[in-house]
Design goal:
The chain has 139 residues and is of the alpha+beta class. The protein folds into two domains: 1-52, no CATH class; 58-139, no CATH class. The protein contains six helices and four strands, in the order E-H-H-E-H-H-E-H-E-H. It has helices spanning 4-7, 11-20, 39-46, 71-78, 92-95, 124-136; strands spanning 2-3, 25-26, 87-90, 109-112. The strands form two sheets. A two-stranded parallel ribbon has the order 1-2. A two-stranded antiparallel ribbon has the order 3-4. The longest helix is centred in the last third of the chain and has 13 residues, at 124-136. The protein is globular.
Amino acid sequence: MAAKDYWGKGGLRRYIATRGLNAVLIERARDGRHGDPLEPLAEALQHGDSLILFPEGTRGGGPLPAPFKSGLYHLAQRFPAVELVPVYLENLHRSLPKGAMLPVPLICTVRFGAALPRRAGEDKEDFLMRAREAVVALA
């Protein structure tokens, strides 16, 4: 998943996102002109694809993720059979800083957690907090 307003600009950036990373570009603008911003992600899930989501909605400048946006919750509700696996990417904020198109050659570590179980009746805020805490616990 990648932000269309950033990764969809220019030929090289779009090429890296769509051809190199096989990214699904999504509209972050909620101006009513573009419909449901989650639709391209839902389409990918309906086709059986796996997605890597950055539920903060943007690349942050620090080692820990910012609070999660609601898209993760809505996708989890819409696709309850999809397994949600928390992942922590150590050093990502330094190896691919905000505004950079290409990564800086630094060592990064990827840590995978146990799948996040669904909880009946859990509201959006609690779910998003629990999902973020699962990622932070891997830091």
